[in-house]
Design brief:
With 368 residues, the protein is α/β, with parallel strands linked by helices. The chain has nine helices and 22 strands. A hairpin with a 2-residue loop joins strand 11 and strand 12. Helix 1 packs parallel to helix 5 and helix 2 crosses helix 8.
Length: 368
Amino acid sequence: MTRADVIIIGGGIAGTSAGARLAEHMSVLLLEAEPQLGYHSTGRSAAIFIRNYGNTTLRALNAASEPFFNQPDGVSDTSLLSPRGEMLVAEEDELDALADYAAEACGIEHLTPDQAVDLVPILRRDRIAAAAIEWSAQDIDVDRMLAGYTRLMKARGGHIRTGQRVDGITRQAGVWTIRSGPDTYEAPLIVNAAGAWAAEIARMAGASPITLTPLRRSAAILPAPAGHDIRNWPLFASASERWYAKPEAGKLMVSPADEDPVEPHDAWPDDMVLAEGLHRYEQAVTVPVSRVETSWAGLRTFASDRTPVVGFDPAADGFFWLAGQGGYGVQTAPALSALCAAGCTGMTCALPDAVRQALSPDRFPLRS
């Protein structure tokens, strides 16, 4: 029997960042089902910080996280960000989507079609009706971020157990007992950071049956277009999210921006979905897709309102939700880990009350 003050289930960026924060104040044990941390969504992220990405609550979390990315004390000696930019291009039927995005965004510069093609020369000028760019969007060094949080948690006395898939959770006399094969763990607090498996963990624990839906997102690596230096290209995307593309280690990562509901699993791309998405991308550029070097898929898990679920469960004492981050988990991890630490330790949280209420599991009606 292994005991701790808090057990975190899930070793992606959400669980690892929360573990690093909590380990400063209490004994922490993190359980990860896979042989390594960050195996699922964290390791398959597009790895970019876009302050205007997401709904109002997510944009508040992005803003709260940005100072950490620039000065990641305890995690890295230098910024985790590097310049990139995000450019949205709209065809005629996407003008409303671009206008809606720009209306709620800050720091957006509108571009002419010619300016858009100057930035990304392979774009088809005749397909662009309008464009806009967020210059402040930046690449995130996710590997360095995850490694830094892991080191910090261990330096503060936290423990990590990989290969520990949870198969049973019970609570008695104010203590949770977690079973993983022959191993048993105990703690008065659980943090549910299990990503696509968060609803399953909640069911085991008898917590509120909040619906969380994993959505598959695919991506492919293409060779860099011949004759072009793509290193300084921004991420460029369809304004209505039909596809997006981003320079990646001298090559081009292209995603069909798919969101197909699936069961929690080790995701892989659907060949037809990927082919259709690459075709949509191909229609927007002058360079045909001649070869896919590699492809993969990850799971983006959302609640019904596409806002993360963070806070203590109203039906299960000592059960803290840190789930439903969708495609925003990496860039919101600094703010959400601080909220988790404040909730579990009783300390003050810097996030506004309205943001914390928008994240709370209490917003969903209890169901039997």
